[in-house]
# Entry
Amino acid sequence: MKVVWTLERATVRDVYEHLRSRRTIAYTTVLTMMKILEQKGYVTKTREERAFVYRPARPRQQVIGSMVREFVDRVFDGASRPMLLHLVKQTKLSDKERKALLRAIEEVDE
# Structure
């Protein structure tokens, strides 16, 4: 999704080339992921000449929220607390980040 958001419109080949410049990845893997993103409604595709062009279907924050909810449901049985505790314990937070996190928690409690 990050590549499609960055490029705003991309073919599977575009996404593949973008990702391949950073790591080894199979073209078929990118093709499969693009199909999944389309099935989930995160991207739309239109035929342009001989290729499908994918575009973001929903805003970034909305997609990220959906993906996080899906992850929490799948990995943590819908409970966000264990995930948050894991992230806080395993991540080296700076004082500034810790304070920002505490402020965000306090805002939710209000």
Summary: The chain has two domains: 2-56, 62-109. The chain has a mean pLDDT of 92.
